[in-house]
């Protein structure tokens, strides 16, 4: 071995159990390629003849061209640190005055190896056969089924079961030397809710794979914020990638991405055109109109609802608003429950618009998400507003019915439907 070449020594044992002699080996040709970069080739001279019933052996010395290593390494890196090495030997024989080149299958090999230089240096190798590809069929994806996993405590998740069928018989290329990579991802407005992956060898027949991944409360909050800020619309992508690694090729066997849209209208039931009366001590004193509720810019901490309502005083004495309160729940998970003291006077036969910001606590979304999944991806949003009114010596809580409602929302995140 020197700076230019690395020596490879190979010993060949020949056994002739036949009653006739083996034709004389004039020489041996060899070629070694790594990702189509020829790193060694040449001819080794050597005359060999094996008589009937005899055994013999001879050595082959070949030279590995070190100068080709930079070119090979570039191809190795570009191929995700993966190399297919082809080692091919031929015997040149002379029989009846005719020279023939005969493949030496016992020496000819195809080896696939991978490295992970930046990830810890792990090296994997796999020897794969060189023949039989034309007689083989690639494995097929039979089914992919996903389900939610909702524990009593901790993160929710998705479990995906995949069945891959390998129809090839033992001994063929796509039978004994395969591994399979399966990946699963759910993206909601480019927020990756969950990702799972697995890798294993597969044999002829059926192979069952299971992938699982967790969804953190943080990711649920990120998706919720994107959903609200995108006008209650989510672009959903469910990726199920299954690829067979045959050593010399990677074959996708199915699992195309599913795409869909999740849309909601959680504030839709607020009727801004409605005019409803309100009473104190059983006596109608005014009307509520022009009610509105709109999302403000959501953050990871909270989702604000900007609400307003116009109260008209139909009496000849002033009305005083001393308190404003609200309560918002989803599946009985309280997202907001507050009251605020006010000092608002509505003069006789006049009106006043009361505005407020209702902050939904996004830290509660993780608890809500579990209830949403347990109910088959269904949630009920309940909104309740009220004001406390003083009139003519009486104090009464008045429900703002035009702002109060319940709205049921459904999703189908793992399917391909719009909510």
Q: What is this entry, summarized?
A:
This protein is mainly β and 419 residues long.
Q: Which geometry do the CA atoms define?
A: rod-shaped
Using the 3D structure, state the CATH architecture of the largest domain.
Answer: Sandwich
CATH superfamily of the largest domain: Immunoglobulins
Distance between the termini: 69 Å
Q: Nearest-angstrom radius of gyration?
A: 38 Å
Oligomer: single chain
Number of helices: 4
- By helix and strand content, what is the structural category? mainly beta
The H-and-E topology, N to C, reads as EEEEHEEEEEEHEEEHEEEEEEEEEHEEE
Overall strand count:
25
Largest sheet features:
6 strands, antiparallel
**Looking at CATH, which topology of the largest domain would you report?**
Immunoglobulin-like
* Overall pLDDT confidence: 83
Low-pLDDT ranges: none
Helix content: under 10%
What is the name of the CATH class of the largest domain? Answer: Mainly Beta
Proportion of strand residues: over 45%
Return the domain count.
3
């Amino acid at each position: 071995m020197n700076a230019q070449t690395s020596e490879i020594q190979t010993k060949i044992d020949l056994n002739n159990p036949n009653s006739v002699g083996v034709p004389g080996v004039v020489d041996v040709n060899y070629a070694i390629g790594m990702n189509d970069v020829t790193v060694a080739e040449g001819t080794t001279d050597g005359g060999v003849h094996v008589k009937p019933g005899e055994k013999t052996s001879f050595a082959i010395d070949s030279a590995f061209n070190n100068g080709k290593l930079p070119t090979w390494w570039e191809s190795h890196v570009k191929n995700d640190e993966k190399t297919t090495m082809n080692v091919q030997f031929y015997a040149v024989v002379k029989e009846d005055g005719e020279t023939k080149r005969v493949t030496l299958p016992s020496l000819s090999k195809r080896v696939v190896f991978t490295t992970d230089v930046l990830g810890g240096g792990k090296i994997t190798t796999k020897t794969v056969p060189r023949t039989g590809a034309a007689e083989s069929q690639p494995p097929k994806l039979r089914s992919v089924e996903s389900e939610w996993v909702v524990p009593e405590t901790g993160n929710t998740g998705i479990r995906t079961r995949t069945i891959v069928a390998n129809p090839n018989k033992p001994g063929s290329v796509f039978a004994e030397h395969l591994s399979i990579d399966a990946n699963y991802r759910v993206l909601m407005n480019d927020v990756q809710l969950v990702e799972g992956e697995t890798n294993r060898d597969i044999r002829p027949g059926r192979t069952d794979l299971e992938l699982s991944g967790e969804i953190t409360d943080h990711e649920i909050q990120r998706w919720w914020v994107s959903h609200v800020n995108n006008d209650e619309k989510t672009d959903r992508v469910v990726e199920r990638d299954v690829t067979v690694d045959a050593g010399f090729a990677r074959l996708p066997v199915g699992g195309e991405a599913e795409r869909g849209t999740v849309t909601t209208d959680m504030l839709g039931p607020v009727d801004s055109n409605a005019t409803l009366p309100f009473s104190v001590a059983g006596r109608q004193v005014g009307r509520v109109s022009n009610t509105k509720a709109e999302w403000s810019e959501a953050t990871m901490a909270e989702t604000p609802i900007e609400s307003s309502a116009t109260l008209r005083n139909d009496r000849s004495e002033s009305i005083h608003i001393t308190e404003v309160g609200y309560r918002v729940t989803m599946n009985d998970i309280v997202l907001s429950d507050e009251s605020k003291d006010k000092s608002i006077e509505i003069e006789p036969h006049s009106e006043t618009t009361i505005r407020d910001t209702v902050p939904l606590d996004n830290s509660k979304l993780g608890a809500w998400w579990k209830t949403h999944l347990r109910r088959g991806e269904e949630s009920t949003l309940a909104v309740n507003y009220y004001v406390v009114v003083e009139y003519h010596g009486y104090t009464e809580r008045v429900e703002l019915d035009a702002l109060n409602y319940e709205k049921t929302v459904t999703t189908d995140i793992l399917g391909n439907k719009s909510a």
